[in-house]
Specification:
With 400 residues, the protein is an alpha/beta fold.
Length: 400
Amino acid sequence: MGAVIRMPDPQIVEDAMKFGLLSTYPPTQCGLATFTSALGDALDSLLGCSVFVVRSVEAPTAMSDEKVVRHLVAGDRLSQRRAADALNEADVVIVQHEYGIYGGLDGDEVLTVLRQVDTPVIVVLHTVLARPSARQREVLESVCSSADAVVVMSHAARTRLAHAYRVDASKVSVIPHGVSPAIARHNGLPRRHRILTWGLLGPGKGIEWGVQALARLKDLDPDPEYLVAGETHPKVVESQGESYREGLAGLASDLGVGHLLTFDAAYRPTSAMPSLIGSASVVLLPYDNDEQVTSGVLIEAVAAGRPVVATRFPHAVELLAGGAGITVPHRDPEAMADAIRRILTEPHRAASMSGAGRVQAEQLVWPAVARAYASLGQRLRDRSPARARALEATGVPSLL
C-alpha cells in the first residue's frame, strides 16, 4: 500500500528547498495551469522555500511570468534538454502529468525530459484512466517508473493505479487537491435557490442534464436560477466555436426554462471565486465522465461549505461520502432534480451538508497541501542517492 500524507503541523517550518515545477502555467487556460500556479504560490510562501517553473507550451512564445525560467516546447529537442538542465538546478522537481499537456503521442515527450533529470522527482497524476489504451498505459507506467514519488489526489486514484497499472505502490502517496483559504473562509449568504456550475465549458461537462433537471424544478417558489459560469474551453472554441453553449441555450428555451438559465462567461480571477461559490445554494456537477478521480471544482465546493449534487464519478463518490453532498447516476436529470429539490427545500439537510464540507476544509487549503508536498520533497532529498545512478539501476524503459 502507498502512503497517505498526513498534513504537517502548521507550526512546522520546512528546511530551505528550491522546487522546480514542470507543467502548463498561466496564461494557459487549463486546470493544470491553475493548479500549478496555486501550488507554486503556496510553496513559495513557506519560509525557506523557493519555486521556479518550466512551462509546457505547444509553440514558442514569450515568457509570461517571473517564475517561468524555461519553456518546454512540443517537438523541440533543444527545449527538452534546456528544460532538464533548468530542472536539475532544483532540490526537488514536481511534474504535473496529464496526457494532453506535453508533446508527442499521448504526451510521451515528457519522458525525454525525465530521463535527463538527476534531482528527485515527484510526479502528480491528474488522470488515472480505468480503460487506457496500450500506449497510454505504457506512458503512464514509464512516467511513474522515472519518478521517485507519485502523488494522486484521491484514494480512488490510488486504488485504480494499484489494480490497473504496474506501478511501485510504495512510491504512491495521496495528497488532496488544494483550495484557496479565501474560499474556505468565505461566510457570505447564498442566493436563495441558486444552482451553480462553473469551469471551462465543453462537451462532457453534462450541462444539458442540468438544464433538463432545471425543467423539473419549475414549480419551486421562488423560481430556481441555474447559473453556468465560465468561458468555453479554448480548444473547444477552436474546433466548435460556441456551439455547445448555444445548444444549451436552445435546449433551455425548448423546455421552457430559458429565463431560469444564466450564462456568465466573464473571466474571474482567483480572488473573485469565493463570492461566486459562496452565492450558490447548491453546486451541481453533472459531468458525463465516469473516470474522473480528481476534481478541483468539487474540492472548492466542499471546502466552501456548499451542498453538492454530483454524478457518480470516483472523486465525488469518495469526497461526498462524509455527508457534504449527494451523488446521482450519470445522465439522469430526474435524479439530479430530486437531489437538488431536497437540498433547496430542506434547510436542515442543506445545513448538515454545509457543516460536513467545512469540517473537511482544513485539510484542503493550499497552505496545508503545500506543507505536505514540502514534507515529501524533504524526505526524498534527504534520502535520495544520485538520481542518475538510481534511474540507470532501475532500467527505466525508453519509449522514444
